[in-house]
Design a protein that fits this description.
Blueprint (H helix, E strand, L loop, with lengths): L2 H20 L4 E2 L2 E2 L5 H14 L15
Length: about 70
């Protein structure tokens, strides 16, 4: 794997890790974010984005009151 591809992957991993920490996620299934693969981080981030308020990037979430 070329150095550029590895650098881009590491950069993406850092970005996703920082975004997940913003949402208050530090571990997934009792595993540190730093030990997870890039696809696992992307999957978790997409899951959180689907649950998040559409106009906020700080982690505000919808609350269903019945």
């Amino acid at each position: 794997m070329s150095k550029i591809v590895r650098y881009d992957e590491e950069k993406r991993r850092r970005e996703l890790t920082n975004k997940l920490i913003t949402y208050g996620v530090y571990k997934i299934d009792n595993t540190s974010l730093l030990k997870l693969s890039l696809p696992d981080l992307e999957k978790e981030y997409k899951r959180l984005q689907a649950d998040a308020h559409p106009h906020c990037t700080s982690g505000l979430r919808w609350v269903n009151k019945r």
